[in-house]
Amino acid sequence: MVHARVETVTLEVDRLQALYLAEAGLARALQEISNSRDLFGNDGIGVISPTAYGRGFFQVGHDPASRSLVGWGVVGDVRRVIVYRYQ
Q1: Nearest in space to 28 (alpha carbons), one of 54, 61, 66, 55
Q2: Range(s) of the domain holding residue 56
Q3: How many structural domains does the chain have?
Q4: By percentage, how much of the chain surpasses pLDDT 90?
């Protein structure tokens, strides 16, 4: 029972960290969009290539036509996705 509890807590920590990573990627993408410059690489404004951070990584895709961003955060086997629409 203790082992199952530890696995559950670890999974919840991974889920939270993956969510924070997705949010970090979106913050970088929004910074690029607000500055109208590709600040973090040569991948296009608002696009963030896979970036390692801590125990995971984040990545952001940008669709200027629909004015939307999709941010992914991955830690271990956990992937969290956030879709953000901007004006």
Answers
A1: 61
A2: 2-85
A3: 1
A4: 86
